[in-house]
Design goal:
This protein is mainly beta. 3% of the residues lie in helices and 46% in strands. A hairpin with a 5-residue loop joins strand 13 and strand 14.
Length: 233
């Protein structure tokens, strides 16, 4: 664990002149020793900092609330971006090959590489091996691509794009989002159909329960963020 100092700054706006100078002071109870990493909001009044192997949570007055850690055991991997989720958890943490997460109490939980709803439901891109009896031999290592919703290890629903195969899973955390109504959006790079013919990339949407809504082929983009009435790409 690499230690650093975490400080919480509060602005002093006692007068217009002070505001113009944008002066800051360290809040009472700070600074505090912490791991060297990303500082992100926590559930309730917490602030958390993580270096990919450890997470430390503090109250806003500088008291340490809890710590958690896990050895990611990853070699040449890409780091993931941790964030506060709708259910109060923090994740994903670590690397794309072995991500982890913690709940609002600091207990280790399964990471979600997608969207987390307030009830803990994880909606993420899903892949499943294609039935080799239904495709040419050259497509035996391809996968069907779609979406899956899970909660507490139980699959709630799945949706897979018809006649659309990918050679390798290549869609990560930033390719799934939801809008204000709970509709789900995901993007997929170009793939092939079950004959091996090339098919264009696509942006798809399903309902909160996983029923197909629409697809836009050849979009070339991935959903960047949800909005109250749709999605930004």
């Amino acid at each position: 664990m690499v230690a650093s100092t975490l400080a919480l700054a509060a602005s002093l706006l006692a007068s217009p002149a002070a505001a113009a100078r944008a002066q800051f002071v360290v809040a009472p109870g700070w600074p505090r020793p912490a791991v060297h990493g990303d500082v992100i909001p926590g559930a309730g009044d917490a602030v958390t900092v993580t270096d990919g192997e450890n997470v430390v949570a503090f109250t806003m007055d500088g008291r340490r609330r809890w710590t958690a850690g896990r050895n990611p055991q990853c070699g040449n991997c890409e780091p993931v971006i941790p964030a506060l989720r709708a259910d109060g958890s923090i994740g994903p943490i670590g690397f794309d090959a072995s991500p982890w997460a913690v709940d609002r109490r600091g207990r280790l939980v399964e990471a979600c590489l997608g969207v987390v709803r307030a009830d803990g439901t994880c909606i993420s891109v899903a892949y499943r091996r294609v039935d080799e009896q239904t495709v040419p031999e050259s497509l035996g290592f391809h996968t069907e691509s779609g979406l899956r919703a899970t909660r507490n290890g139980t699959i709630l629903w799945e949706y897979f794009e018809p006649d659309f195969l990918s050679f390798l899973p290549s869609v990560g955390i930033d390719t799934v989002t939801t809008d204000g109504a709970g509709n789900v959006y995901a993007g997929f790079p170009a793939g092939v159909d079950r004959t091996g013919a090339a098919v264009r990339s696509r942006l798809i949407s399903v309902t909160p329960g996983g029923a197909f809504r629409w697809r836009r082929e050849g979009s070339g983009g991935f959903p960047a963020a949800g909005s109250p009435g749709g999605v930004l790409t």
